[in-house]
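Quick one - inputs below.
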Amino acid sequence: MTEPTLVILAGLEGNAPTRLTETQLALLPYADLLKFSWALVFVSVVMYLLVSKIMLPVLRRAMMSSRS
Amino acid sequence: MNIIASTYRRLFSIREIEDTHVLQLVFGATIFSYFLAFQSWISGTALTLDSVARATHVCKPFFQECAQWYFLRALPEGYSQTFLYMTFFALLFTAVYFAYQKKWVLAHLVLIPVFVWHTLVVFVLTELGIGNYDYYLICFAFVLLFIPHKEFFLKLCLVLFYFLSTAAKLHETWILGTYFSALKTGLPLFPDWAIPFMTNWVIFMEMVAAWFLLSKRMIMQRAVFVFFAMFHLYSGLLVEYRYPATVLPTLFILFGPLYRFQEVSLDKRSLAGWALVALLFVGQMMPVVIYGDEKLTLEGNTYGLYMFEANHQCISTTRTVFADGTVQEWRGESISSRDRCDPYRAWFRIHSRCKALGARVDRVEWTFDHSINGGPFLRIVDVSDACVLEYHPFRHNAWIKTEYDSPPIVGYPVENVYD
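Output:
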């Protein structure tokens, strides 16, 4: 494996390599947890909207029409 | 003639446009967006015969033979491209005239060739010079032109775009905000320590709060509308005019002072709209189901929304060994965070060159180093002959290393720029 080197790209000579900020470093151990939590929220929103705004009204409408 | 007009009116639900002021305004905003799109395309070279001759064109991964359909030449080599786009200019201008005259069937009719060409270019003919704002425009125009319950599905699509864009944000890019901390200029107007708070706030607003744009609770609806209006103006600090000019007018028309609550459309006529919604979900999930981090491999990345999905830097080097034994070396670098550094694009150009050179080239040795969000440069491609590689559009390509393959680190990037 190549020994890591600092790659200075054209036009940016003299700049420091990128570093995480203190806030990011503090959040870093929880990054996966945060990602999982947001994914859970994403799925929950989809499920909530699918069930409450589409499936239930369609079912309700189907039941109403079958009664009449 | 009247029968044709009435059939056309019924087929495309033109009555909705005739009766709804909001849809007439969206029609105007859509025409405005096409002017913006074509303003940049008229001088572009992505679709020209000369780009094929120079091997700078890039086809879609699922339609790699696109060049055989190219027929345009751009200035200074020719004027067929300017001729085509000035024809579209005339059509757009005619659509404005017919809209002004309230002749909505005719306005609708002249906008269709514009829609077809724009969609064909974005989804079939090229991989270059297009962005998520084109996806927005296609979706808005498709609903406006072809789908019943136009106002409801326009609203739903706009909210869905906010929501679906968060699927691309579930990554350290936005969870930690490393896209912006890796930039020389940071996050505009906010200090570096605030970056993760702001990026997670945006995820919340797009994933959860955006749905309140459709609410009947007017205070909540107005508050979210104001947030997104401000958000688009703010985003212009980086993305400039094109994206806000595509989204903000439609956002203002649909959710601003003219907003009215609408029940969810669930009748038979709404099936086309729901099919479109399902298609948007499928597109957004494609990069997720392809093996590996699509921010690193870029496989499937553009099938869904990919705004600010990662801050990219890359280095591509080739060593072309010719049949006569001569060797030509080339190195290309990209420091712009929004240049997606897609190994597919680099491969496509190498492959085009291989085909053009034929037996004169023996092999092309190729390495591709990719850094995302200020992380190390990872050598994700290292092959002895790029000419013999193939690219599969809907599954992982083994010659592109993912994070699971532990690609070697070859260096670290400096802070880069959004350019």
